[in-house]
TrEMBL record:
Organism: Couchioplanes caeruleus subsp. caeruleus
SUPFAM superfamilies (UniProt xref): CalX-like
Positions of the Calx-beta domain: 42-147, 155-256, 400-505
GO CC annotation: membrane
Protein name: Calx-beta domain-containing protein
Length: 957
């Protein structure tokens, strides 16, 4: 412990201080003083004690402001010689506390000896330091005791306080309690501790909280007490009221402390009490009343409120949200002004309540209903909606339905149909829309549905009128609705007016006067008719000639005509000769269907490939007696002109080889046929053919121009000989093969296809010498129709061996020939025959008997295509062609018969690797009947001829 030596030397004592809280310092100061022996045996002298003789204390009561020094002077009186004396002193006792309020000190004073006169007073000083603290306290004292032997003397020292009273704040242990907490404590907190007990008067005051309702007020004269040396007072308890009222917001009160001698300043603390009740909700119940009686809706508040509760309410038409769709099924809609008096912005109130008020409060809203004579849905619904609550909140049921039951005496309205004159003229074309008005005899308060429908009488739906049906919905208050029926205007002669019915049905209105009959007035003239002529090419196969029959306007029944052939035409429907059968007698009745203006007479034309002149035939169309009785139509004729479309026959000269000296009969193969004879001219001249050597005039005898007749009805493929013979000159000149060109022309039709007569090399040539017994060779036809065999026959020496040789058309005739078979000629007649197979080409044939060779003939192969047609889906037709023979790459053309005659190409293509061609046509009219055929082209270079298929008819799906 450190101290200042100067202070110790002066005072003879050691000053020191203890610091800390007063209570601690007080305890320590006494303990320390005792420990170091500062405290004398006697701290305070009693008044009976004697003072120290010869010594005086200048002042018996001295003072200093805390923090200053207390100074005491001790005087030893002079006047006589003085010995050295020692006096002890000690500071202790009183209200001040050593080590806290002052430095507890003790010491001794030595007065020196003085034997020299004059003997002056000797003075010694004691200085004690006081403590300057911040604690407000009363003035305090302590005693300084002077001791010399058994004598004592005292002086009282006063420490004057220099601190102001402390300030304070008021505190709650919970400044925001819930009313359910029951109580809250308030205390005061000094800003510094005081050296004395401090009391602070407090009081409570309402802000929004109410004393006696929300809490118990602090009693008058209540103080908060803070003990000396402490900073916190003992608490004062405020009791809180836990009530059932909803108090809207937090309730507040204040606690205030006032000033007195113990403290400075004032303080106010605010206590906020939170409510523990849920905000009450407002709900409304549905209500039902008869029209004319009020609807009284009960409105509920779920709990009491400290303040008045209000809410807005409004009315509206229709069912409220409190009814489900099933519950509202069958209800109508009440209309403001007609069924009830509307309210907008009405107010419902619940008075302010006390804690004694029951938990749920009910009040009422009244809505006036109105009486009328209108038939209405029962019940009709309106609803009340709550909104904008104050203090409370809206509950789950804030929209309540008010159901108004109708007066049973209100009858439903009677339904009528306008116009009342139920007659309409049909017109000549298009649709004439007739509007009908359905009228209610009076307005209804409910939605009314009237179903309308039409039913055919003598009028026909889709022909005279268009059936109509539907529903008309009358909203409450509506009395008229319209619907339309289309009257079909036409030019059809129907003979008399026609009728249909309109029926009305309703479960909400009176429709006992229905159905109503509507009359469509006939305004069309009796029809006349025409029939057109048909000019058409006859074709190669069967086709159909269609004569259009046209009525000036349709009739409502079939218009039928008896059909008969009128004599005098050149076309015939009998006979077996080529081209004799031109048509097939048509059906005996032609019809224009009811309601149509177009009919037809169909005649099957027997197309062929026979060349003939144009031909005609006429058919009479006479209305049947039943038609005549109604329409009085005159008969008319239909003329069919068949135009020849076939080429005149062609004579293809058969090329052959002759020897010098031969008399050659020149033959030709007929292609095509004619109904009448065809005249041709044939000429001969030496000519080079494909590089051959032309025969000279010295190699043959030119017969000049030779007339050739192909008789009528000669079948195609027949062989005809040119009149006379061609004489080949036999000379001695060695020469190679030479050629003679045989050509010609027709007049009045017909043609000649060139042939070549080859004079075989002679006198050293390569051809065997002619034989006197030369075999002959002919073919059963000029061509084979389709793949298969064809009979070849001839004559040779009786019993001789005959060998058949052949080379395909297109090969070099002078090239390699292949053996095709061997037979033995008949032993008596010399007759022989072969059946060679034709597959893809025509053939050149010859026979030999030993070294003797027959004439050479050419047999072509002609297409015989198969043709099929089908319709497997709507508007389509699939055409299939199979070549015969099935040669890939051949061109195909698909043909369609035209109305009025002729053919049109509808598709083309080529045979595929399987010899097949398939085409599907689309966009065809459903229900139509169409006649098709196919044309498969050949290849003339290999002797394959072009040909048509059979025709086929299909009805389009």
């Amino acid at each position: 412990m450190r101290y200042q030596p100067a202070h110790a030397a002066k005072s003879g004592s050691v000053p020191f201080m203890l610091r800390g809280p007063k209570s601690v310092r007080t305890a320590l100061s006494a303990a320390v003083a005792a420990a170091i022996g500062f405290v004398p045996a006697v701290l305070i002298t009693s008044p009976a004690e004697a003072a120290i003789v010869g010594y005086t204390i200048t002042d018996t009561t001295v003072s200093a402001t805390e923090g200053g020094n207390i100074t005491i002077e001790i005087t030893r009186a002079g006047g006589a010689a003085m010995l050295q004396e020692t006096v002890t002193w000690a500071a202790a006792g009183g209200t001040a506390t050593g080590l806290e309020d002052y430095d507890p000190a003790s010491g001794s004073l030595v007065f020196p000896a003085d034997a020299t006169a004059p003997y002056d007073d000797q003075v010694k000083t004691i200085t004690i330091a006081t403590t300057d603290d911040a604690m407000d306290e009363v003035n305090e004292t302590f005693t300084v005791t002077l001791t010399k032997a058994a004598e004592t003397d005292t002086a009282t020292a006063t420490i004057n306080d220099n601190d102001a009273p402390p300030g304070y704040t008021l505190n709650f242990d919970d400044a925001s309690p819930s009313e359910a907490d029951g109580s809250v404590n308030v205390t005061a907190e000094l800003d510094v501790a005081a050296g004395q007990t401090v009391t602070i008067p407090i009081s409570s005051a309402d802000v929004t909280a109410k004393a006696g309702q929300d809490y118990t007020a602090i009693p008058d004269a209540t103080v908060l007490t803070v003990l000396a040396g402490e900073t916190t007072s003992d608490p004062v308890t405020i009791t809180l009221t836990n009530d059932p009222l909803y108090e809207e917001a937090e309730q507040t009160l204040t606690v205030s402390g006032t000033a007195d001698a113990d403290v400075t300043g004032t303080d106010t603390a605010t206590l906020t009490i939170s409510d523990d009740e849920e905000q009450p909700s407002i709900t409304i119940d549905p209500q039902t009343a008869a029209e004319g009686s009020p609807l009284a809706f009960d409105v509920h508040l779920s709990g009491p409120s400290e303040r008045e509760v209000t809410a807005k309410w409004d009315t509206a038409d229709g069912t409220g949200a409190d009814l489900t769709a099933d519950e509202a099924d069958g209800h109508g809609t009440a209309t403001a002004g007609a069924d009830y008096t509307a309210t907008a912005g009405g107010t419902v109130k619940f008075a302010a309540m006390t804690t004694n008020t029951p938990g749920v409060v009910t009040t009422a809203i009244s809505v006036r209903t109105l009486s009328d004579s209108i038939d209405e849905a029962s019940p009709e619904d309106m609803h009340v909606t709550l909104s904008s609550p104050t203090i409370a909140k809206l509950g789950a049921d804030i929209e309540a339905t008010g159901s108004i039951t109708d007066d049973p005496a209100d009858l439903p309205p009677v339904v009528t149909l306008l116009p009342s004159g139920n007659t309409v003229t049909e017109g000549s074309s298009g649709k004439k829309t007739q509007t009908y008005t359905v009228k209610l005899g009076k307005a209804s308060g409910q939605e009314i549905t009237v179903d309308y429908s039409t039913a055919a009488g003598t009028a026909t739906d889709g022909q005279d009128f268009t059936a109509a049906n539907g529903s008309l919905t009358f909203a409450p208050g509506e009395t008229t609705k319209t619907f339309t029926v289309d009257i079909m205007g036409d030019t059809m002669y129907e003979g008399a007016s026609e009728t249909f019915d309109i029926d009305l049905a309703s479960t909400e209105a009176d429709v006992t006067a229905f159905p109503a009959t509507i009359t469509i007035t006939e305004d069309d003239a009796q029809p006349t008719f025409t029939v057109g002529a048909v000019n058409m090419q006859e074709g190669d196969t069967g086709s159909v000639a269609v004569f259009p029959i046209t009525l000036s306007n349709p009739a409502d029944t079939n218009v039928e005509f008896d059909v008969a052939v009128v004599g005098g035409g050149s076309a015939t429907d009998t006979g077996i000769a080529a081209g004799a059968l031109d048509y097939i007698t048509p059906q005996l009745l032609a019809v224009v269907p009811a309601g149509q203006t177009k009919g037809s007479l169909s005649v099957v034309v027997n197309g062929d490939d026979v060349y003939e002149s144009n031909e005609t035939v006429s058919f009479s169309l006479t209305p049947t007696s039943a038609v005549q009785n109604t329409l009085n139509l005159d008969p008319k004729n239909a003329v069919l002109s068949l135009l020849n479309d076939d080429d005149a026959p062609d004579l293809e000269i058969i090329s052959t080889t002759a020897e010098e000296g031969d008399d050659v009969t020149v033959r030709g193969v007929v292609t095509g046929s004619a109904q009448d004879a065809v005249q041709l001219n044939v000429m001969f001249k030496g000519a080079s053919v494909n590089g051959s050597t032309a025969a000279s005039t010295s190699d043959f005898v030119d017969p000049g121009t030779v007339g050739v007749t192909i008789p009528g009805n000669t079948f195609s493929g027949a062989t005809i000989a040119v009149p006379g013979t061609l004489d080949i000159v036999d000379d001695a000149t060695a020469e190679g093969a030479e050629t003679i060109l045989v050509s010609g022309s027709g007049f009045g039709g017909g043609s000649v296809t060139d042939g070549v007569i080859t004079i075989a090399a002679s006198d050293g040539g390569t051809t065997p010498p002619p034989s006197t017994d030369k075999p002959t060779l002919t073919a059963a036809a000029a061509f084979r129709l389709g793949v298969g065999t064809l009979k070849l026959s001839g004559k040779a020496a009786a019993g001789s061996t005959v060998k058949l040789w052949g080379t395909p058309v297109g090969s070099d005739v002078n090239g390699t020939w292949e053996p095709l078979g061997t037979v033995t000629a008949d032993a008596s007649t010399g007759f022989y025959s072969f059946l060679p197979e034709f597959t893809t080409t025509g053939w050149w044939f010859r026979t030999t008997v030993g070294d003797t060779m027959s004439n050479t003939i050419k047999v072509n192969l002609k297409q015989s295509p198969d043709f099929f047609v089908r319709s497997s889906s709507r508007g389509t037709a699939t055409l299939s062609v199979f070549g015969d023979p099935r040669v890939a790459g051949l061109s195909v053309r698909l043909l369609r018969a035209k109305t009025g005659g002729g053919w049109s190409t509808v598709a083309s293509g080529t045979l595929d690797a399987n010899g097949k061609f398939v085409k599907t046509l689309t966009g065809l009219r459903s229900g139509s009947s169409i006649y098709f055929k196919a044309l498969v082209f050949g290849d003339s270079d290999v002797g394959l001829l072009t040909n048509y298929s059979n025709g086929a008819r299909v009805t389009v799906r």
